[in-house]
Amino acid sequence: FALKEIHSQEYFTYPKEENLPADGARIITPRRKKNTNILLGKVPGVDGLKTGYIDESGFNFTATAIRKNSRFIAVIMGIKNVSYFDGIELRAKEAAELLEFGFKNYRTIYPAIPQIDAITIWEGVENSLEVQVIDTPVFTLSNDEMTSLSSTVQIPNELNAPVYAGDIIGS
């Protein structure tokens, strides 16, 4: 929610109308501010996240982007001894390079789950049990690792009762 509704907006206005004081004790005029994430709309998939500056660490930037099935987060910290505008540009440039490196060299996959036959249950109320996969596996691997990827499903052909909902019976 926050990425789409807040962090990926080119401009934002604060405070929101509903947050203005009702009693008129002080006058607050909402201000429109440009998002300081200059990668929005320039680097494909960038949808957030946080820019900043503090004296102790300098210019900082946490950028996130999604393309196809992959999301990467670049964290840039400690850009010091540069002017305000150079700091903003440099942290964005380094974040963009780091994100591009991730998208170029890594890929996220969701392997297909094979059809799993029912398991025979001995000494139970039922004679068989339908197996359910509780978590969809997801992997982010380097392009080199993709060439050697394989998987194995290990599930027994039969079990003795009792078997309870939520029991882990294989891998």
Write a concise synopsis of the structure shown.
This protein has 3 helices and 10 strands; from the N terminus they run H-E-E-E-E-E-H-E-E-E-E-H-E. It is an alpha+beta fold and 171 residues long. It has a 3-stranded antiparallel β-sheet. A 3-stranded mixed β-sheet has the order 8-7-10, with no helix packed on it. Strands 1-2 form a two-stranded antiparallel ribbon.
List SSEs in N-to-C order: HEEEEEHEEEEHE
Q: How would you sum up the global shape?
A: elongated
Q: Count of DSSP helices?
A: 3
The spatial strand order of the largest sheet comes to 3-4-5
Sheet/helix structural class: alpha+beta
Beta strand %: 25-35%
Q: Level of helix content?
A: 10-25%
Distance between the termini: 33 Å
Mean pLDDT: 87
Low-confidence stretches: none
Task: Note the main sheet.
Answer: 3 strands, antiparallel
Give the radius of gyration: 25 Å
What's the count of strands?
10
Task: Provide a descriptive summary of the structure in words.
By secondary structure, the protein is an alpha+beta fold. Helices cover 19% and strands 32% of the residues. The strands form four sheets. The chain has a three-stranded antiparallel β-sheet. It starts with a helix and ends in an 11-residue tail after the last strand. The model has no long low-confidence stretch (mean pLDDT 87).
